[in-house]
Amino acid sequence: MTTTTPPLTRIFSSDNTAGASPEIVEAVARAAAGPALPYGADDITAGVRRRLGEIFEREVDLLVVSTGSAANALSLAALTPPWGSVLCHRDSHVNNDECGAPEFYTGGAKLVPLGGRDAKIDPAELRAAVRHKAGDVHSVEPSVVSVTQATETGAVLTLDELGTLGAITGEAGLRLHMDGARFAGAVAALGRTPAELSWRAGVDLLSFGATKNGTMTADAIVVFDRSLTPELAFRAKRAGQLAAKTRFHAAQLDAYLTDGLWLRNAARANAMAARLTEGLKAIPDVGLLGATDANIVFCRLPEQVTQALLAEGYAFYHDRWEPGVVRFVTSFATRDADIDDLLGAVARHLAG
Amino acid sequence: MTTTTPPLTRIFSSDNTAGASPEIVEAVARAAAGPALPYGADDITAGVRRRLGEIFEREVDLLVVSTGSAANALSLAALTPPWGSVLCHRDSHVNNDECGAPEFYTGGAKLVPLGGRDAKIDPAELRAAVRHKAGDVHSVEPSVVSVTQATETGAVLTLDELGTLGAITGEAGLRLHMDGARFAGAVAALGRTPAELSWRAGVDLLSFGATKNGTMTADAIVVFDRSLTPELAFRAKRAGQLAAKTRFHAAQLDAYLTDGLWLRNAARANAMAARLTEGLKAIPDVGLLGATDANIVFCRLPEQVTQALLAEGYAFYHDRWEPGVVRFVTSFATRDADIDDLLGAVARHLAG
Amino acid sequence: MTTTTPPLTRIFSSDNTAGASPEIVEAVARAAAGPALPYGADDITAGVRRRLGEIFEREVDLLVVSTGSAANALSLAALTPPWGSVLCHRDSHVNNDECGAPEFYTGGAKLVPLGGRDAKIDPAELRAAVRHKAGDVHSVEPSVVSVTQATETGAVLTLDELGTLGAITGEAGLRLHMDGARFAGAVAALGRTPAELSWRAGVDLLSFGATKNGTMTADAIVVFDRSLTPELAFRAKRAGQLAAKTRFHAAQLDAYLTDGLWLRNAARANAMAARLTEGLKAIPDVGLLGATDANIVFCRLPEQVTQALLAEGYAFYHDRWEPGVVRFVTSFATRDADIDDLLGAVARHLAG
Amino acid sequence: MTTTTPPLTRIFSSDNTAGASPEIVEAVARAAAGPALPYGADDITAGVRRRLGEIFEREVDLLVVSTGSAANALSLAALTPPWGSVLCHRDSHVNNDECGAPEFYTGGAKLVPLGGRDAKIDPAELRAAVRHKAGDVHSVEPSVVSVTQATETGAVLTLDELGTLGAITGEAGLRLHMDGARFAGAVAALGRTPAELSWRAGVDLLSFGATKNGTMTADAIVVFDRSLTPELAFRAKRAGQLAAKTRFHAAQLDAYLTDGLWLRNAARANAMAARLTEGLKAIPDVGLLGATDANIVFCRLPEQVTQALLAEGYAFYHDRWEPGVVRFVTSFATRDADIDDLLGAVARHLAG
Question: Which chains touch B (3 or more CB pairs under 8 A)?
């Protein structure tokens, strides 16, 4: 679809345009030397599982996958029958941006979109939805709640907010999935432990995003309800998600989790968004919107400013939410200078 | 499942235990520097498509995927309706080793297993099967033929054999898929052009294997019937096979296709299998079985020899086809010394 | 779920509680004598197809099915790929009351709920939805619009309203499905021809409801786009919808279509709803809601009246849409006296 | 497909060409009078469940469906995960004659065809298959065994044979499904109780065929493992198999089960096949094949006899199994004279 490539330091369309952390590149190179057992039976994959156990302060199982969409769709398939429903925010990635991957993997379960500010599910809506027509064969059966952390608008669920949603879910007997495509960003922003922000709040399966935050092609499902592991393994193979040379995905995750790289990367992305937010606040006539807890910034810009930025090669989404609203996303690879250049350009075009 | 790791130079269980070619590692490292457009809109992916066009002597489309199972299942889903059948050899990978991935991706199409020597579909059986109950709503509709090149037993379809199967398929109005997990090995063995061995013989979609022959996590579908490209793109996204940072898979394929690396790697794997075959022939009491066109060697070993090899740390499959039959698989990374050590061990245990 | 059976003349919960028209019972009895070809190759089924051709003023194909849910789900499966979306009203039966049958039959397509008064799709919302992210592989592809005639609230789409929705659909290149579970009621109410209300407005496939209006176990898909017939036949068999003794469903449809029985039955159900509406208007403190074009009446009743009616054995849905709102459905079998008794009971309890 | 209708007393192609028993017609007519609760909440459906409990000597649950294909596919879907396999005879109806309905309903499980005489699964093959690659994620997981009673060739599984297959299934931890499309014929032929021939032998779900033996449009699943009932109810609704006016299917089953009609009908069909067998034995040059335990007769006829019978309007399948082999199926509606006429024609054409 895209035909001309913008100057690459001006891409703020998504955190998936960044490269990979040097530590991760080196780990992949190291993993390439010599043979290893296939299909995840290698030592590197075993090491990642151990590291995740330490990070989450309990034994977990691990499913290495090649995309976040696969992590989400596999998780949901293990948590709902085909006749079930997935309760999620109407702006969630699983609902809008995966071309029906959850419907495909689950065998046709239904995503029930709920409202709420900052792309967080409204607890009152959830409370109604978890019981809506439960046990009625004429309707899909409420089966799993999927929350996103951080949300699609860059907000983070606080421990309280997550606890509330988790409690509603658990009391109704439903399962809890977390789309953690930007889980690292939420941990970095909240100063809470990974355990508090996942299984202690009732999360059964966590899509543990890494690609947006430093890896190349590796994401993972962290399995807290380990009774689901065999089913997930069969489903992953059948979905073409069991890589013969899993070690090359695992090596990325291993480096990502070593010495806190994952949190340092996330903290940098968050800091760059904060720098952008502060800068935009200082410019008159730029309306900031919503919370900037993690690495996504929404604001209102005059149409001619948006067009001028695009003409200069800046890449970002605009006018998808409402007219005049633009979205900038930072990443672990964003430099101070990139932000400062962007701020300068916004100020210049507003003045012009 | 596996608990102890064998000495790694003694793994002959599969070509997927090898690492990656140094050129490929370097290409991945280069690709990591700086941002790029996501989802395959990057320049590296565009370059791979061009290279494939040159290699196959016509314009092709390209779908980058993370596993061979995904390449096969996506291809078959684009070539059969859910009520169709996939005609394939009873020993084929799609039929036996993908946990029903084709059934999942196609929405429940049926794999109809056919016989034939050396895991090649018997033309007479195919001729009957392509017309079996065609148009009868009580039965699945013959829709696509899937051939494997090289086959699961390491034989290669000659140009004549492929032409015969292609003609039967085409005349009956069915589509033709090729599982080319070891396509490079077949090209290297036959001395025929990639074009002759694919679209010129009627192949609509080719699963272009690379992982077993030098890449890390990258396989591809080469699309000859380009009217299928939009459907494949939707299906791939929906299957979790559209990587945000596609460039990291593409970089592997790019290096793989540069300066003939893919054929050099395959030629080496084939040569190592030939060395093993020659060596085994020289040992009395070892019965070689079937053709060794590519990189797979089947032979009969006495039970105590098999056990002795396993005890020494050799890894290989045995007794899966019939009692006493073992399979050795070589790869681009197999060294002369690895073969010679194995031959020495076989001779020693036979003598012992 | 229900444990005690109410007095059966007091069931206003749905038109599916009625028995069957005597003409239909007789036709079934006649069909039982002697053998016939199975799977719809019998003469009665052929006759139904001819009758439908006369009624719709053009050649049509016919698929006999056993439920309206099957008619809808099969139709939608033939009109959208698995990665497509079905644009429908948020209150539609396909969206709410079929336990995900459309998702199951389509292989996981997504139902996109739209708003609009009286359960009619709002044209402006439809205009936006048919183009929403079209061609974007990250999102499901707008593929088919499903309208309900008469709607779930008993309103009917006028010829103009239907024409508008059909034009938006056609201009965007999407397909049009009509859930005609109460199509007869709409034809009877509007005084327009079946042709005008279906294919002339762009309908590709019509779920031709009969069970709610006089048959026992027979519904049908009327196929206007006859290129879809072979696919529908395979899908129906595969879905367990091809009855060996199709003649017994067909005999019901044959009698239903003979001598205008289908329209007489619908006219009676409509007249009973009109009688109820008139009667309720005459009772102070009963608030009528929405249009009563066909055989469904919504009104507001005080809670104690609702409870008193239930206590007397009246069966109807209440408090599902909003607190205080009740729904009464009439049928071809409703008698004047049944309506008058109900009106008397409402008046009595309101007075009490 | 068929264009001209043969003289209907000469149809021996299938038992599904017969009409319906008079008692069943009368029951349907009785059920049509007056309203009833929909979706199986009616009294007639409850009565059928009680009758089945008496017949099977234990409490059972009941799912009323409109075709045998639906009964089979729903049952299998409840007994295997999508990544599982269904072990069945290679000649079984589920494998050959349902256009992939089991694959559709199960979400893509694999049917693994096994051999054995008289379309009965060979115990040795089953013993190997139940353990084949169990627990290996690369392969589908053996999950359910489906046996047919009576088999597709008209043989019946003796109590011993069934017990053997049931024991192998149970010991391996798999589930057992019985396709009882002709269960009545088997009970009539064996003189064993329905309980002995089903749940006492380990059957979890029984497709209880009725359409071939006297009903019009009604078959059923008899649920012995009642923990599966809720899942089956959701699956049935979602598959378009929950009829609004279930009473009309249930009325057929009720009459079918009353006063032993089901066994009388089956006994008649069996007797007619026996009469045909005896008659054919008396004709030189007719080679009978296989067991005729129930209502299916296989024999060899010279080609010119087959053609002469067809020319006279006899309808039957021929040359589908091997050249020269024809199949005659009798039913509850077959009369002595029909058999005698057929025997006369065979003798006449052989003599001619």
Answer: A, C, D
Q: How far apart are CA C329 and CA C137, in angstroms?
A: 43
The answer to whether residues A291 and A185 touch, using CB atoms and an 8 Å cutoff, is: no
Q: Which residues contact B54 (CB under 8 A, 6 or more apart)?
A: none
Query: Which one, of B338, B337, A43, lies nearest residue B328 by Cα?
Result: B338
* Cβ atoms of D87 and B87 closer than 8 Å: no
Interface of D with A (CB under 8 A): 39, 81-83, 107-108, 137-138, 141, 231, 233-238, 242
B8-17+263-351: CATH, from 3.90.1150.10, 2.60.40.10, 1.10.287.1080, 3.40.50.1260: 3.90.1150.10
**Nearest CB partner across the interface for B104, out of D108, D137, D138:** D108
User: Which residues contact residue D164 at a Cβ distance below 8 angstroms, ignoring those fewer than 6 apart?
Assistant: D123
CA distance C233 to C229: 6
- pLDDT by residue (tens digit) across D266-305? 999 999 999 999 999 999 888 898 778 899 999 999 999 9
Closest residue in chain B to residue C108, using alpha carbons only: B107
pTM reported for the whole predicted model? 0.96
Residue B183 has pLDDT above 70, yes or no: yes
User: ipTM value of the model?
Assistant: 0.95
Kindly determine whether residue A243 and residue B217, on different chains, have CB atoms separated by under 8 Å: yes
Chain A hits for D108, CB-CB cut-off 8 Å, are: 238
Chains in touch with A (≥3 Cβ pairs < 8 A): B, C, D
The amino acid present at A46, given as its one-letter code, is A
Determine the Cα–Cα distance for residues B208 and B178; give it in Å rounded to an integer: 9
B38-41: long-range contacts (C-beta < 8 A, 24 or more apart)? B38/A14, B38/A16, B38/A17, B38/B244, B38/B245, B38/B246, B39/B242, B39/B243, B39/B244, B39/B246, B39/C137, B39/C138, B40/B64, B40/B242, B40/B243, B40/B246, B40/B250, B41/A1, B41/A2
Separation between Cα atoms, residue D216 and residue D235, nearest integer Å: 23
Instruction: Examine the pLDDT at D2 and tell me if it is beyond 70.
Output: no
- Which residue of chain B comes nearest to A219, CA vs CA? B243
What are the sequence ranges of the domains in chain A?
8-17+263-351, 22-261
Residue reference for tokens 């409690």: A167
Summarised one tens digit per residue, pLDDT across range B301-327 is: 999 999 999 999 999 999 988 899 999
pLDDT at B27 over 80: yes
Query: If one looks up domain B22-261 in CATH, what number appears?
Result: 3.40.640.10
Distance from CA of C290 to the nearest CA of A (A): 24
A154-196 pLDDT, tens digit each: 999 999 999 999 999 999 999 999 999 999 999 999 999 999 9
Are B39 and A13 contacting, i.e. CB atoms less than 8 angstroms apart?
no
Evaluate if residue A1 carries a pLDDT over 60.
no
* Chain C hits for A14, Cβ within 8 Å: none
Distance between C105 CA and the closest CA of chain A, angstroms: 8
Q: Is the pLDDT of residue A330 over 50?
A: yes
**Residue among D91, D197, D73 at smallest CA distance from D144:** D73
Taking all residues of chain A, what is their mean pLDDT, rounded to a whole number? 95
Q: Read off the tokens for D38.
A: 């929909």
Identity at A200, one-letter amino acid code? R
